[in-house]
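notes to self, project folder thing:

trying the whole complex as one job this time. last attempt i did each chain seperately and stitching them together was a nightmare. two parts in total, labels are on each line so i dont mix them up again. if this works i'll redo the older ones the same way
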Amino acid sequence: MAKTLISEQIADKDRPELSPRSLIRCFGFLGRYTPLVLIGAILCVICVWAEMSLINEIGLLIDRSDLSTTPLWTLAAPFLFYGVINRVCGGTQWLVTVYSTNRATLMLRKAFFNKLQTLSKAFFDNHKIGWLVARNSSDIGRINDFLTYPLMMISIFVTTTVFAISKIIRITPLMLVPVIISMPIFALLTGYYRNRMRRAQRKASEQNSRIVANISETVRGIRVVHAFSREDENFNHFENLNDENRKLNINLARLNGLFMPSLDFIGMLNMSLVVGFSFWLIAQGYKTSSGNPITAGDVAQYVLYMNAILHPLRMITDIYSLSISASAAAERVFEILDITPAIKDKPGATDLPKIKGEINVRDLSFRYNDDQPWVLRDINLQIPAGQTLAIVGETGAGKTTLASLIAHFYEPVSGEISVDGYPLKDVTLKSYHSQLGFVPQQGYLFTGTVMDNLRFTAGNMPEEEIYRRAQELGAHQTILSLPKGYETQVIEGGEGLSLGQRQIIAILRAVLADPQIMIMDEPTSSLDIFHERLVQQALDKISRGRTTIVIAHRLSTVENADQIIVINKHSIAEKGTHTELLEKKDAYYNIYHHSLRNPDIE
Amino acid sequence: MQAFLIDSVHIHDSIIIIDFLHMLYYRRLPLSYWDNIRLILRICLRRRIVLILVIAIAVLGFNILDLAMPKALQLLVASLNNHKLSVLGISLENLITKENRIIFFTLILPVLALLKWVVGYFRGVWEAKLGQGALYDLRNKIFSKVQSLSFAYHDQTHSGRFIANIVEDVGQVSMFFERPFFMILQVLAGLSCIYAFMFTVCWQAATVSLAIMLLFLSTTLLFRRFGYPVYLHARASLETMVSSFSENMEGNLLIRSFGRQEQERDKFADAANDYHNAVMHSRVLWNLLNQSLLWGVFLGIPAVVYVTLKLLQQGQFSSDNIFLIFMLQTAMVMQMRILSRTVDRGVHFSVSAQRLGGLFHVEDYLPDVSDLTTLTGSNDPHPSCLVDLPHGTLELSDVNFAYRGSTAGVNGISMKIEEGQTIGLVGETGSGKSTLALLMCRFYDPDSGSITIGGEDIRHMPVAQLREEFALVFQDTFLFSASIKENISYGKSSASEDEIINAAKLAKSHDFIMEFPEGYDTIVGERGVTLSGGQRQRIAIARAILREPRFLVLDDATSSLDMATEKTIEKSINDLPRSITRIIIAHRFSSIERADMVYVLSDGRVLEQGTPRTLNRPGTEMSRILQLSEDEDKKNNSREDFPSPECGQVGPNDIINC
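result (full assembly):
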């Protein structure tokens, strides 16, 4: 699964431009708002009809011979009538459509988010957060635009064309000749420029993302920038990117300047054809469909109708580009919506009862997908309830993967993990996870106060109890030393707090849930000695009476473990207690000495 | 689940309106509103006045040509009805006769269109030049502003949000300058041309139309006042929604392992509801504006028809002129659509301008003698300012410094660091070690006291040149999205390949770099290969070594390395030329055992100082802080049963007790 996800990300560029299937599927999201959108489309038709009728009225007015005798209000009333209808329908239509697509996209957004909540760790391993955020903000926005505008535009376009052409036919079908001549030219020209424009646009937008990435890196790396006094060089580099962007955009404007007025030009040519043609028709003495001679009013109407058709014709380009970007956006969003979670409760999964914490790993093998090498092979492991297991090994040996498998963030490829005799695949995720404490490598904290973070697991536990537990763990002092103690605000991830402070809070948070099994991924790496010691002491305390699995980076974490496994080349190389393993004088022995030894520098 | 979603949508339907009214009533424009807009416009439009004038003329020309078409059509109708033909009172009877009118009317339209094409092309290109130029300037300004802001400023801001805001705001400003900005000109020119024309044809109809129009146009002014808070709220709720989303993704495993999915779902649902409602508010408000402008046009139609018909019945008017007035009036539909869109983008722009303006108003620089980093964004390095930095002792005398909004910092620290010495700084987190190092290379200025090199205050030296002499490795390593080669040579772009490889070897990174298929060209950083913490630190160390600084500062730079690698790198650093002053911040005794002088810090004060030998005795502060070394002692004692695999080598105990 992992690999398909990666290749799909890469494949974004080679995607077919327009996928009608996903566009149709977009409309599915309108759900219960579909009737509203249809009402919107109908209102749109009425609105255009009223506009066309205004043109009709002015044409009739020009030809009337009794203008000077007819009461004024009977002449002006139709204009008021159609004008009001046009505005009432136009305004309502807009509101109705925008409202329903706004709500529909809201549902889509929530569905998207909820889907992500069910996806496995493998998914998040392979998708950068930034990429997912862009799906949520820009792609769903594009789908929203697609649901809102093209339907509106198409209603306008179709209605206008149908009305105008039927009116023209009513004058005389011959008047359609110029349209038939100019339409293909219009279509060809649009097609040609559209391609050129799109290439130019893509270039410009790529350049734009380069600029954005550059600003973003400079801000995040500002300390390094200052430390290495790279300001001037960076500025020059940025200025070049910026200048290139300006050139690309001016180029784009050139293309645009050639193209858009050329549509006007063709429109005008068309119009002059219309005019010339009208004169010719009049000179030839042609009659209208109703048998009367062609009048000035007829010509006026004709010209205005033609003009009315030309305007929405230009919208086709807009509809097309909206559809293209929505199509790509929708495919990316649907891909995620369509993923069957790799890990989900299988039908008939039961709730895990309150566990003691005995873990059994039998013949476990795992790889991310079929073409990739094994990450773990034939792992067998028993952890009696309440004992501590330390996992040791080189980076990339599979320690984190093993811990994640035990946490059931992945599904084993073969073999089985069971807790208290219950195979993990047969129990509900929620019932297992609620008895599991997990401390990732770098304590991640959520936005909110420290207390909010603790309440994450503590629920409604009285504050005194939280303080007491914090004291037990040695975290109370650390938290009180923060600017506002337990009420200190934490921003995204924990910026502003030191790694050590974050880790202590993260451990306390995990402990407050009173889990029977604790899994910790290198909880003391990247900590300074002071915090390392603090965390170490906390670890010793929480491992009492709990099954604890700790991935160790510093060997000091390991010594007190009831069982140590050394993972080497994707399988367990050694297993035993600290003393046993040292006596063996093998892998563990080497690591132990290698890491603590002070090589002779001289 | 589904039912829950639908319910919440229902509830929010009614809240939308209440919220909306509340917001309209209570939010006011900020005081600096216009200042910020002026500032952004000045940056964008300075030196471009001529271009604006040229564009204004082109726009005017374009609009006049635009109106030629209705006139031509009116002439056409008049000619067909055998009325008199005239333009602005000049008779065209001789020009257009019954015989040549077919040629005239067939040709006049393409000729007009061709003219429009030419004018439109240049107008488009000039507009792009202006808009893109404005953006170019603005972006350069922002970039140098961001780069020049002091550490103290960046400390206080949350980088992720800061970047997101800048990117979004610059995007909004650019969207404004891409088109809407010129559309103001367009609408002004368009409306004045239409009305000028209408007045020449029939002043009575024009007056009536204008009166109606103005009544509805006034809503534009109200819109700016009411629109701003609504748009601002939409913008803020977008940010909340996005950060709620990204936070959830980051903490995904935790949320799952704590079984908090449902609460998180609700939390995000709230943020999403809020955002969608806010967008709806802004859309509704905008629709009010758009509608009222269009009502202005559409109510004008029967009015002008009525007025012109009345004149016609009085015998002062011809029916073809009614047609012309009608066309002129309907031409305004387009102008009004453009206007409402422009106002929409304009309010977006004003929201962003406030925030960017706020950024530009931050005056947070270190005063620099060479004034290298100024708002003007000059990239001239002022080489004349660069004098040779004096050599000699780095001396801190009674340095006091506190971070903003915090009491932490350093309190009255004095120390003398001779050239070529190795200094160890030891202390608990928050004791001021890193701060001290940052003060030395002037990332902050001390609140009191002074730091001198060779007797000269570092504040009297050009900042850039001072920092040239330093190379820092931070605990939190940052690599750029570039190749490993570029990252290592970041501090010395002129470095040769050999120098780069040599530095990488010294930092023990050559081997793992060569394991990548692309070797030194492997892209790392956010958009590249993910490196482990230890690998990143090693590249950062290589980056510092390559710089050949006079002062090498290692701030807990080896924390993610295993001890064997750490030792090798320490040896490499020790083997660097003797002239380099090394300042090593460490938590392990082994890292500083070769220091000439060790300072033990606590709460921003020097608790102890001395050689590692004198300090590494039981009872000293250092031995307490580096308790681990004692722990290691104990371990070592218990490990005597298991001699080291390579016999005869010194154990940790030996060095510590030596």
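what i see at first glance: Residues 1-16, 372-386, 632-658 of chain B have pLDDT under 50 and may be disordered.
need to look closer tmrw
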